[in-house]
Amino acid sequence: MPEGFLYHGTSSKQYELIKNSGYAVENFYLTEDEDKSADYAEKQSIHDGSEGSVILKIDVSKLAGDINMDRGSNPEEWEHDMGQWVYTGNIENAIVGEEKW
User: Fold this and answer.
1) Which residues contact 88 (CB under 8 A, 6 or more apart)?
2) Is the pTM of this model over 0.85?
3) Which of 17, 40, 42, 64 could be joined to 9 by an S-S link, Cβ 3.0–4.6 Å?
4) 24-55 b/e with 16+ CB inside 10 Å = b?
């Protein structure tokens, strides 16, 4: 299990969907690399035509659901993958930072 903080990058449209779901997420990718989450956020924004991108900073100690190593991810692929971790649960209380651009 990771410790400290993890990051999730997404588009502003996807973030609105997350908020509208009450912050309940399933197979939610997280990474230890903030730069990687920013790259993914930009790609997601272009893909869905969002006007903005978002990086969420997540305090792992506040996650109450299941967090597991992404079985489809390995160190050689982390340059291209969104994250090393997959979480299912609620993230509302674990969000400690939100960067929008």
Assistant:
1) 25, 26, 27, 28, 65, 66
2) yes
3) 40
4) ebeebbbbbbbebbbbbbeebbeeeebeebbb
